[in-house]
Amino acid sequence: MRGWIAITRRELAGLFVGPLAWALLFIAVLLQGWLFVLYLKTSGGDVDLALRWTLGESWVFWALLILVPPLLTMRMISEESRTGILEFLLTAPVSDAAVVLGKFTAAVVFLGLLWSTAFLYGLAVSSLGIAPDWGALAGGWLGAVLCSALFSAIGLCASAMTSTPIVAAFGAIVLNLVFVTAPLLAGLSDQTWVRAAVARVDVIDHHKGSFLAGVLDTSYVAFFAAWTAFFVFVAVRAVEARRWR
Q1: How many other β-carbons are positioned within 10 Å of the β-carbon of residue 183?
Q2: In whole angstroms, what is the distance from residue 159 CA to residue 74 CA?
Q3: What are phi and psi for residue 177, nearest 5 degrees?
Q4: Exposed/middle/buried for residue 103 (C-beta within 10 Å: 0-12, 13-18, 19+)
Q5: For 91-143, what is each residue's pLDDT tens digit?
Q6: What is the per-residue burial (b if ≥16 Cβ within 10 Å, else e) of 165-178?
Q7: Number of H helices and number of E strands within the chain?
Q8: Which of 124, 126, 151, 243 is most enclosed, with most CB atoms within 10 A?
Q9: What's the pTM value of the predicted model, to 2 decimals?
């Protein structure tokens, strides 16, 4: 797809030049490090448990996942639409899909680097003579990246539908909250079909049930891939609609 790699490089350069991405990275890494040390102490030195908490067992992880991708993606399309840069991109010899996929890839790469700090914690405790379960750690990281890809796609979809970054971030955060909290609220329902239907979009269960346990289940990968592809597709259609306005 022509232009995809060029757009990805451009967005990554923009992320690492701007202050917002560095601020988000600093806050996320600080909270993750604090969480790892805290649960390492409270678990009596259980390294694997502490690493699982940093990659999906804790509310801090999900709070970061709800907030960071929308804040990272809110300006990627909406701000460029407001300033006129998006119109320039759309007249360049690149497809709408390449524009969206390039921005999406940059966001996922950035978030993948953010969650990869867990490997540093694993190396740190391994140097002290306590080797973690590297398979479970790699699985937890993969699950975190897939969750980040889904929420980044949601953020890009919201960004493509408005020219105001704050509105895009708010819309994406609300939708992320729905994905995370809907299964919890559905558990209070007396209707079996409601619980069964909502269980199919249970992001937390799909992450914990496979990846955090170090098990690579292709059906769980397909779950994240399908939902991510859906929101990327909607974002591409929204960008295409801008071309004809």
Answers
A1: 18
A2: 5
A3: -60, -40
A4: buried
A5: 666 777 888 898 899 999 999 999 998 898 888 888 887 888 888 888 899 99
A6: beebbebbbebbee
A7: 13, 0
A8: 151
A9: 0.88
